[in-house]
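Q: Convert this sequence to structure tokens.
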Amino acid sequence: MKSALLFILLIIASFCIYAQELIVRKTTDFELTGVGDAKEWANTDWTQIPQRKGQKNYRTEVKMQYSETGIYLLFRCEDEQVTATLQEDFADLYREDVVEAFFWTDERFPLYFEYELSPLNKELAILVPNNQGDFMGWRPWKYQGERRTRHEAAILEDQDWMAEFFIPYQLLKPLSNVPPTSGSRWRINLYRIDYDEGMTTWSWKPTRKNFHDYESFGTAVFQ
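A:
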């Protein structure tokens, strides 16, 4: 009886550990369209991002891959009314509809990368030092050439919208554990904000106070 109970507890523990992980497959580089129709996306399944707070329980899904040069993400967001007016990059995009990705590549340092993309294809890319909850984002310097992201967004006819972006490893310098190789592990979280009826938020892993709760991030495991 004790051995059977121990076996069940081990299965539950293994499931809890696995549930914290997102398996990231390797890909060749490809062009972005904003609707995720590149053939390379067919090699990766959608991961659902649960709704955590607010009124609108829209379906939100994401795919993530990595290549020799950077990280690819694709979001698909169910919606009824897109709230997006900001027309410049590095604006306060989180005050309107947006998707976000946070990469904490090395747990030895409270320093992570944050990326946001709006339905109007406006971006925010910052490095965030977080000193026990006291945090502020820093914009990239010499943000051009191989350090520049690639991104496309599309609002569909039914008001659903999609966001597709590429984060080059050159932009993440000098973060540790970059670029990832097979077996590398990053702590990450993936988010969405919508403003149809007040603010509704989604996060891949639940947070305690805000999106910058990096200790609650899940883990991306690179194949």
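The first strand starts at residue 21 and ends at 26.
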